[in-house]
Write the structure tokens for this entry.
Amino acid sequence: MKKIFIVLIICNLTFIKYSLAATALSSNDNVSSYLVNTFDVSGEESLPRGLTFNNDGSKMYVVGEDGDDVNEFDLSANFDVSSPTFVQKYSFMTPTQSSNLENRPTSVKFNNDGTKMFITGRGSNDLNEFILTTAYNISTAQHETQLPFDSTDNDINAFDFNNDGTILFITGTENELMHQFKMNVAFDLSEGVELIRTKDLPGLNDENNPSNGEDEPFNIEFNLDGTRMFVIGTKGNDVNQYSLSIAFNISTATLDGGLNIGNNPTGIAFSNSGLRMFITGTSSKSVREYHLPCPYNLFSGGCPSITKDSDRTGIAIAQIEIAKKTIDLSTDTALNRLKWIRRNKDRQNLTNLNMNINYTNQLLASLTKAVQVSAAKKEKKEKEEDVFYWSEGSIAVGRIGDTNISSTKKVNSDAITFGADKFTNKNGIKGLAFRVGRNDIDVGNSGSNLDTDTYNITYYATTPIEDDTKFLDTVFGVGKLSSDLLTVLDGKNLTADRTGEQIYGTIRIKDEIKRNNLTLIPSGRFDIGHTILGSYKESGTGAIDVKKQHIRSKKIRLGIAAVEDLSNDQYTFKRHGKLEYVADIDRYSNFKYNYVDDNSVNFDDRLKSGALHNINGEIGIDIIMPENFSIFIIYERNQALKKGHTDKIHIAIGYLPNKKTNFAFKIDGADDLKSNYIISKNINDFLIDFRLTNNLMRPEDYEEASVNLSRKF
């Protein structure tokens, strides 16, 4: 493989840059093909033994046997040793300390928040604890506790903790063993330790048979969940990888294999994602950065599932949740419209025909009858032909808590919906709605994000089943999704685009029970949906190639709603609320993928989103103005039990084309009685009148017929 060497010498520090390469290796190969950067530390430490990083990889710390100190470096890019800058050093000997603590340090670690530093070495054979008043700032370190391990091993090499500091691991050369201790108090040496077990670890290049154990086990690292362990074999010039069937239990460790390193390696560290491995050694006098084909794995065929990384899993689950949530929101918007129409159906009489008078004047009686029949037919026809236009804006915010495999997700969604509907000939309603949504989900704390645009067309209809109180609502829709995916690992961006299509439907049955101004509405509902997300391929170190994905949705809902009418002569005002139980009975989706740099294994992770049991509640108001403009506002809370919640606000405006048509018959006069038949119609404050006047004494004579147009200002 061709390499490109760029050598820069600045202040006695040497940087070597190699071409990127991450083709998966096999056991007993040389690790050099993973090598990306080399940083010469001989200006500060000529015999480096151990190294570690702060929690975000912006600082690196190196200890070694030549100095009696720890050296702190700033990194220009997180977990990138191409251009470190020396900051300061802290000595473990006098005059910094009250007494000599360690003159040959070999290993250094911090607790989780950087307020404690631990070092061990071959000079004292002790483990020392320091308190840092400023996290990860070694100049603020003060020695706290010294714990000897002479009885365990007279030649201690290195140590490590488990994730929460309750378990301590020590390696040594005297017995060529690894020892596991229980910490009586997490990350606190002053309370003592208790030996749990000892393990003679096999290694790649032992002097004897590998099964007899690694001859000189040195620094140790674990993956995030403690199911994989890495140990430097200094005498064998190798790095060995082990799988643990029980997390952080070295008695269950089995050797996966090892890679040859050379240069007398001793120290090892990983980036947070496990995609970058760092090794230091006394012969190379440097820190070397290696890029791995997948997290915490050295070999072809050994890549872990993305469920080992909570942010990666969070991005995968977020895609499932967006697909399902888009169906829910599109369906709810249509059903909200139907609920609003029914709550205000009394305002939708398109004509007001309230005339039933018997005339002695036969001509007027005939005319009145003809007008009644004509108006009644026209009312039905116009009611069927009128189109109601409406729009709704919705905002949803929420938080989905972390799980054992997924990071916390913060959800922000906003959408605008435009719709139109009309009455059917059976006093039903049908309509179409077009929804455009924008969804933004932040996953974890490293900057990973899912940004999805959604476009949905939804057909909705309602039909009375019995006595205009029982209704059958139906919804059918299709949609398209377009997503930008950003996964941040060790400060580096992995990007991809993904599209998808979906189809969905809903059936809801509800009843209305009226008691004075209060209406109770029990309902049952079944939702079904199917989304197909296309394949995508990330770019960058540790990238994955994801296959087409099917996401199915089935939900059963039972609810009770209440509407209270508080209207007056000027305004229609109603307040309403709902409480609903939702059973999400189809929450799993298969996420199929392989790693770009090691496609020897095809993964098929069965991911779960949401909760089986959910409680939804809402409160809202409807207001209809005298001009028949309307507005309704709903606040809704969706609580996924033990999982998280989403808060939604719906704001909709509409117009009811109520035709304010009036019919009247009037008799005027004293000696000369006259009859007036008037039809008047108010359209946007324009008043149109048709008047017919005749003399009741002479019914065969028509005195006046007129049409008037006027407007009130």
Observations:
- Helices lie at 310-343, 362-385.
- Residues 350 and 658 are 5 Å apart (CA to CA).
- The radius of gyration is 38 Å.
- The longest strand covers residues 470-489.
